[in-house]
Structures are given as C-alpha cells and as structure tokens.
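Rotation project, supervised by the postdoc (A.L.). Task for the rotation student: set up a whole-complex structure prediction and record inputs and outputs verbatim in this book. Inputs entered:
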Amino acid sequence: MEKKQINLIISLVIVLLIFGLFNFLIIPEYSKIGEKNLEIERLEKQIEITNNYYLFSDKSFNDLMASQWEQKRELIAINFMSSPFFFPKTQYFLRNTASQNGLMVSNVTNSNSMPVDKSQESFKDKIKGPVKKTSFSVSLEGTYESLKNFLSALEKQTRLANVKSISVSSTRQDNDILKFSLIIDFYSY
Amino acid sequence: MAIELEEQKRESSSQGNNTILITLVILLILSFGIYFLISFYFLPQKEAQIAEMNEEISTMNRAAVGNNMTKLDEAKRYINDFKVIFESNPKTSNFFLNFNRFFQPNINYSNLKLDSSSRKVNLTGSAQSNHYLMEQVSVWENEEFLENYELSNINLKENEEVTFNVVLTFKQSLFK
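Outputs recorded:
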C-alpha cells in the first residue's frame, strides 16, 4: 500500500472520529448545559417568588400585629372556641344579661348545635370556618323597656347572637309586666 | 529531467497530504478538548450552582413564616366569619325602638309575634272605634319601613268596638 493511501485512510478515520465525538459526546453534553441553565433560571424564579411571599407574609403579619389584633381577637374569640362548656356558659350569659336589664328569666333551653353549612342560612356560602348554630329558647318576664334594653345589650356585645323570634303576651297580674318568649341563635366553632 | 519533475510532484503531493493529516489531528485534539471542557468544567460548575440554590431554598426560614401564615389564616377566618354573621344578623331592637311610629296610640295591641328572618310581625288589635283603625291603616300606608300589611278577622261589634288581626311585613332596612 502506498503512503498516500495510508494517509487517506487515517484521515478518513480521524474525520469519522471527529464526527462521532461531536455527535455522541459534545452535542449531548452541550444540550445538558442548556438544561442546567433552564433549571437555574427556574430556581432563580422560585427563590424570588419565595422571597416575595415571605416578605409579603412578614409585612401582613406586622400590619396585623400593629392593628392590635391580639386584643381584638380576645374580644371575639368566644365565638371561635369549641368548648364542652359552651351551653352552660351561654345560658349563664343570657340569664346574666337579662337580669342586668331588669328581666326575670323563667326558663332557658337549647337545641343541639347544627353546622351552618347544612342549614338554610343565607350566608352559609360566605363562611370560611366550621361555624355551628345553636338555638336557645328563653322565657322572660319584665317591662317593655327592659326588653328593649336587653335586645340592645345583645346587639352591642361581641357574642354572635341572632334574635330569631320574639313573642309578647301580657301577664294577668300586672299590665306593665309582660311575658316574652325569645328564640336566639348563637354561632360558634 | 522528466524523472526529477515527477519526484518533485510526488513530494509536494505528500506534503499536502501531511498538512491535511496534521490539521485533522489538531481538530481531533480540539474536539476532545471541547468535550473535556464541557464535561469536567462547565457541567460541574452548573451542577454546583444548582446545588447551592437548592440549599438556599431549603434553608429559608420556613418555620417562622409558617407560624406567621397560620396566625394570618386564623385572623382572616375569624374576621370574615365574624363580619359575615354580624352583618347578616337582623337588629330586632330597631323594631322596638321605632314601635311608636308604626302604631296608633288608641289601639290596644296584644299577642305580638316577631319573626326576624321573614321580617313579619303578627298582632291582634282592638279599638273603641273603626275610625282609629282607619287612622292606623293610613299610618301604615305612609310608613317607609313597611313593605306590606294584611288585615284579617276584622270584627265590628255593636258598640263600635273593632277587633282584628294584622300581619306586617317590614323592609330589610329596618333591621340593619
């Protein structure tokens, strides 16, 4: 074989080797760099989003604390606690509020609690927590002015109470003293 | 002379072949160089950068933020539920505060039944004269808070005394 032919064969082998190197090693490795760059870009975005989220939550939390939420929470927390003493506590509250406003309580009974989302309440779809409704039947005696004061007191305090119905009838003994039957719904978690 | 020329031609052709071969070998070496540069320098560098970023994400103070978010969620739920229920609750005291404007003073009313969800009030009334009932109807006709009224069981006695039942339906604005 002539030297020229040997050179030609070696050249061909080298060309094939270069082609193989590019095709099977360099190009795949280069595309891996592209993938890594994409992943870096994604992680940079994730870090930015996470940082923004943390900043936002920090700011919101600080704003909430600055608005004295802890004190306000204490005021309304009674509605959002699940306690086995809810019934006796509410009965005590009703008796206490009635007597403070000059009404005599003859009877207080309550129904079982019912989840608001299973009730007919118009606002049930707007509620976010597990709110339950308990109806209390209250029988009272006293003057018309006392009832007005009692209703105003109920509306001004922080327990979520809804006076659903009121029946008024007169007593036989005294024309000023009336009998009141109220159904009051209380809301709690 | 002809033999010398032939040999010179062969030599220059052989030199050309060698140049091509050397160029190809250099290209081959360069290709290997590129491959090793990518594999052992650029890729490990990128992988290290990715590992560093993952580390940064995992070391972000999740516990403190998680605690803040729990409190924020609780506040959001409490405020929403309190607001929704509080605003939905009818203020029945408004009915009693405005009681005198709805009723004629010369009519005796009894058996009052108020249903705040339907905004209906049932009453039994009695008056010494039909004239007072007419006045009462006139008051109801002009009352802005009243949606409608239904009189029933009107009973006119010989001594002009009149008894009746009435169902008054009030507008929602009264209970707000």
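Student's summary: The CA atoms of residues 71 and 159 of chain B lie 71 Å apart.
Supervisor addendum: Chain B has five helices and four strands.
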